[in-house]
Amino acid sequence: MQFLPWIQIALATILIGLVLLQQSEAGLGGWSGGTSGASNFRTKRGPEKMIFVLTIVIALAFIVSSVSALFV
User: Which of 14, 61, 66, 69 lies at a 20 to 30 A Cα distance from 29?
Assistant: First the structure.
């Protein structure tokens, strides 16, 4: 399984990119204890939701590849 490390590198790079593409909902106000709670709740729609779901799928694929590397 010499290609497994390359798969993990590709998945990690894609995962980093997807996480950086996601819109931050907290902003500076969340960091300093500003407004929080139900007033900030909103649903993800369109490309934002697709990036969110794709991030979860890639993260799960990375976890599966990492665990499979333990048994190879």
Answer: 14
Q: In whole angstroms, what is the distance from residue 33 CA to residue 7 CA?
A: 40
Q: How far apart are CA 62 and CA 7, in angstroms?
A: 9
- Of 10, 15, 8, the C-alpha closest to 52 is 15
**Structural domain spans, the chain:** 1-21+44-72
Question: What is the Cα–Cα distance from 44 to 23, expressed in whole angstroms?
Answer: 10
Residue 1's SS3 state is coil
Asked whether the beta carbons of 65 and 15 are under 8 A apart, the reply is no
